[in-house]
Design goal:
Elements (H helix, E strand, L loop, with lengths): L4 H4 L1 H14 L24 H12 L10 H14 L6 H18 L20 H7 L7 H11 L9 E6 L8 H12 L6 E6 L11 H15 L5 H7 L1 H7 L25
Parallel strand pairs: 1-2
């Protein structure tokens, strides 16, 4: 997690509270209510399939946009515009904000939540004032947050050459996280050992076949010969690998990600 657990999950807390404001079914009114920032109570029996069914009932994510009701599409658009994630990622991020949050809270941070949204000001909805007045608010537990940060937040101290790549439209780990990581590394005095590259891809787990041998060749040359790569040089070298590995070069050598708080709203932190 390039921004560490203390910041990388913020938008999933935001998603939980905005989703509940719109859909009122996670939890259902008939179920025991609980703080959304714990994910789920440890004893809850909700399954992934059941959560998917609730989300589809409210948002119609299992249908093409044209087949959703106007109300479903309005809610989807509100989430997309406020949380700044594509509709195709809503379900997966809700899963993380439910089941992964439960594991963190009940297995790692002593049943207290390190996640919060107090002070967050949401924008992009049809009525931001009403949204901000209505969403549930939670304060991260200071000790839980400190424990989670100690376990997951990068120090920025890197002792070896590090070459990274990121699709600028990655729907899972936002490209703005790379900007935060760069700042962390530079503050730790290790900026000279980090080179970041970016590509015009919209996937998370795999970019393209020629991307990786291009990066590995550049990294090995940096390690073995001391020749530090540049984004421009890597972009120029990639096409030579397409003859063997197929098309897929999409490096953006001039790309600079925006700060994380341009994508995920700031909030009060204990």
């Amino acid at each position: 997690m390039l921004a560490g657990g203390s910041r990388s999950y913020d938008f999933r807390t935001d998603l939980r509270v905005v989703y509940q404001h719109l859909c009122h079914n996670h939890p259902l009114p008939s179920e025991a209510q609980y703080p959304l920032n714990i994910g789920l109570p440890a004893s809850a029996k909700l399954t992934g399939a059941e959560l998917t069914a609730r989300v589809n009932d409210c948002l119609g994510l299992d249908k093409p946009a044209a087949q959703r009701t106007p109300e479903q599409q309005r809610k989807v658009k509100t989430i997309v515009d406020v949380i700044r994630i594509p509709a195709s990622s809503i379900q997966s991020h809700l899963n993380w904000g439910t089941f992964h949050y439960r594991d963190v809270v009940h297995l790692r941070t002593g049943d207290a939540s390190p996640f919060g949204n107090t002070g967050a000001r949401y924008t992009g909805s049809p009525d931001d004032a009403a949204l901000n007045a209505a969403v549930l608010r939670y304060q991260a537990d200071p000790q839980a947050l400190a424990r989670f940060a100690q376990d997951t937040d990068p120090t920025g101290r890197i002792d070896v050459p590090v070459l990274t790549t990121k699709g600028v439209d990655d729907p899972t780990a936002f490209v703005e996280l790379d900007a935060f990581f760069k700042g962390t590394v530079e503050r730790a005095g290790s900026g000279a050992r980090l080179v970041q590259t970016f590509t015009q891809h919209n996937t998370h787990s795999y970019l393209s076949d020629p991307t990786y041998p291009t990066l590995m060749t550049a990294l090995l040359r940096w390690v073995d010969e001391g020749v530090k790569p540049t984004p421009e040089g890597i972009a120029q070298q990639c096409p030579a690998n397409e003859a063997r590995f197929g098309k897929g070069c999409a490096f953006l050598p001039a790309y600079v990600p925006k700060p994380l708080n341009s994508r995920v709203v700031d909030r009060d932190r204990p």
